[in-house]
Amino acid sequence: MPDIVAETERLVLRTVDDDDAELHNRLLNTPAMMARLGGVMEMHEIEARHAKVMALYAREGFGFLFMIEKATGEMVGYCGIKRVDSPHASNQGDHEMGWLVREDRWRRGYAEEAVRAIIDWAFGPVEAPHLVALTSEANIGSWKLMQKLGMERRKDLDFDDPAYPPEDRTTILYSLTRAQWQEHIA
After folding, report:
1. Residue 141 pLDDT > 80, yes or no?
2. pTM of the predicted structure, to 2 decimals
3. With respect to CATH, is domain 4-133 assigned 3.40.630.30?
């Protein structure tokens, strides 16, 4: 049974469960949604990702969560916290947040609503000293949300990841400290 980690006005954020891979595959693994994330995944890759997320949550008390729409009970995306684990990143081990909202729920503010709850979780019970978010320069919607949340661009932490196509190869980072977050929401 999944744990409910947070609730927002319109969303319940819950842990990933053993039976969620097919749901993830059907609702989130589309060409448009995965365009900036390395492309559509095979089912075994989703299952491996879920196993990793569940292990991280069991070990450290945080991970990625499914976003469940209260009005419909449907899964509309995922968001959460993991450790930076790219072999190309100079800040491995930092608390990294991320999000993905399914196509038919784009431009409704779900990502911002969920990520605000994730930031509160990170600086609350998780006790993260700071957060980072990674994206490509081509993912304009993602880094614009980072800016809206008060995150600071950190060019000193950018890196190239040859696993991605040329337009997404340069990974850019934004960071947020607890003090910046408190100032931003004040």
Report:
1. yes
2. 0.88
3. yes
